[in-house]
Amino acid sequence: MMRIKLIIQVKKIGEQMAKVRFVGKGLNKVINIAVGTLILEGAEEQGVELVHGCRYGACQSCFVEVLEGLENIDSPNIKIFNGVKNVQTCISKIKKDGYIIIKVN
Ligand code: FES
After folding, report:
1. Could you tell me the CATH number of the domain that includes residue 27?
2. What domain range includes position 61?
3. Using a 6 Å CB cutoff, which residues line ligand 1?
4. Ligand 1 midpoint to CA 14 (Å)
């Protein structure tokens, strides 16, 4: 049976978006993610597959490095490894419009 995945993106008038660049592991892609959207879900909706597991903050497999724009992310769990700030994409939301650079691990 053939499965068809249909993704419809609707940008509401006046909706605030952050520009998010994903880099690392052969990835270099910029997408817009709406304020209030989980990073993992926003990425998936636009074809960016990120490593993840539980999707609720427990397994910690979804940590990514935030190289720029941490102030534009609302995250309940920010960890610093070797001076670089890391967040979990499954529980971190876009807080405001701006520019974010995320390095996938
Ligand atoms: S997917 Fe498990 S903590 Fe994010």
Report:
1. 3.10.20.30
2. 17-103
3. 52-55, 57-62, 88, 90
4. 31
